[in-house]
Amino acid sequence: MHASSWLKFSLCLACLLPLSASISCHKLDVPEFPDTADPVFEMARLERYLAKARVLQIDVLSAEYFKASEAEFNLAKTTQASNQGARIVLKHVALGQANLAKAHEIAIRAKSILEPVIHARAAAMAADSQHQYSEHLLNIDKGLVEISKVVDSFDLATAEKSCAELTKRYQQLKLAAIQETYLGQARKLIELADSEGAKDTAKLTRDIALTKMDEAEKYIVNHDSDKAGMESISQVANNSAQRLLDISRQAKMLDKKDAESLVLNREAQFIKDRDAAIANAKNQQQAEDLATKTKAASLESTTLDAKKRSDALFKTAQSRFAIDEAEVYRDGQKFTIRLNSNALPANRGNLQPKAIQMLAKVNKTIHELGITSRIEIRFHKNSAGNQLSMQKQLQQHASAIKSYLSSHGLAANNLSIHVDDDSKPVADTRNKSSRARNFTIDIVIEAPNPVS
Length: 452
What we know:
Layout: H1 3-14, H2 39-55, H3 58-61, H4 63-81, H5 86-126, H6 129-132, H7 134-152, H8 156-195, H9 198-201, H10 203-222, H11 227-254, H12 259-320, E1 326-331, E2 334-339, H13 353-369, E3 374-380, H14 387-406, E4 415-420, H15 432-437, E5 441-446
């Protein structure tokens, strides 16, 4: 019982003292309320005090005076409901407050002596003893009431002796409630198995179940605050009890002298086969995991090697072309070789020696990247001059370059031609010198992924 709760309740009861200023151990002096008192308000206040007193276990520490207070409160409610007058109602409220104040006085005195009992009772309640062993709890509570009377008579020696005995009984009740919570199901299964003849049909299995039950009970006695441990050991006991019931029923169905041994042998074989299947599945899973990791490592290594090779090919391609021949760009696995306009034939579709030399370098780069690469020949159209003539000339260039590449080891179905319109110029189209730069060819090579 928390000290601050007692202090707060004591301060609340202090306001009742004017009504019973001369409270003694044997007599209650109860003056009347003033004429201005509100019976409804005073009834509500007494009801709150009674509720708080129950929380603080004053109903057990000073049961006689608490019950008297509760009885006066009920009389006040009855009187109020039958309209017998405010003064009669307030008289019952005053008697209720005086008895509650007396109960509190006795509870304070009892608290110092009964502290171990109070804690033991609270622990038993926390273990749900009020539901699992309600009659036992009521009987022990009667003993607590008797001790409270002894305390009130100042027979401290008798009170301390009775307190030790009562504390032990509450502790035993707590352990019984905990054991019922964790082992109640196992106990019922064993009782059911016994009722079906398990003592005769499954002796060995029954001995094991009883041993597991005994181990669990002893563990709970010595570790009643270890919830995880109690759950674990009680699960073993429950499983053993369920196994007893199953083995007993199977042995009974065989109706043979050594039926339990036959059933246990079958169970052992089943467990052996099951464990072997689990081990096999585990080994298979481990092998699959290893294969997956190996494959992932290999792929990572391959990807890393491919990136290094791609970087090397890009640098090689850049160094292969002179500044006045081409520029090389890369975006992932996509390589772009931008051929300069001065390396192209001026007005004819046939290829000049300089252009052939440059395309030979292009062809070598494509073969290094992989002959399965997809290649797109893109032209940036110059909007100056005759459009039809320009379109025809560009088409001639495209056809000539495609023909060259296809005749040098590249599949024609991997080659395509595309002409960009004025919406995608390479350079400014507002002056002649800049427009000339738009008359360029991009050889876009989309290499296999990864580059091989």
